[in-house]
Amino acid sequence: MPAVAEMDWNSIAGIIMAILVGIGLPLALRKRKKAGPLKREELFQHLHAIDVKARLAEKGSPKEKIGLGRSSGQRSEGIIELEDKNIDSINVVSIASQYGVNYHLDYLVKTPNLVGNRSFRKTKLHRRKRPPFWGKVVDIEWKGDRSLAQSLNLDYRLEDRLLQLDPSALKQSILVIPEPKHAYARIRTLYTLPSHHLFEAIAIIARHMKSS
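and the corresponding structure tokens:
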């Protein structure tokens, strides 16, 4: 009997979860449809406010597909082209689930050097806080691709820019993702309106990626 009861409870839990997904996901998709374009417009206006030259690309740009699989729940809300020597453009990305919609920014860096024999790995920024968890960031370290991580770790100008950031400006780590199929790399952050220091830090990372 206990085994039968446990089986019944598992079935009920599965049904409840299916109902929650069935209700939550359509609501998230509806919210994304309305809010997604506004996120891109908001970022575009902010870039002009901090004197970054940018323009809105037409929907359907091939860059919208870089690194976004159909089955991942990710969707491009549009591309913002930049007049920057290191960062080619920014892809505003939404990820919808039954829990809601999260937004990310993929800073796209044109990197023809990714196409070749060497295999590039993802590289991630790790931060150390004192006290742990809720304290101030006192040190940073890049881990992942050996060559790129070493180059980033030795750049004290980059370290200085990142340590100067307000904690709210970088709620999640920075992730550098190579996309050799497209000859691009993505520098991914959570959606945030970048300060001068954050944008400069992203541009420094992009420069390292182009020359790696």
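(Above: one complete record from the training split.) Residues 2-49 form the longest helix (48 residues).
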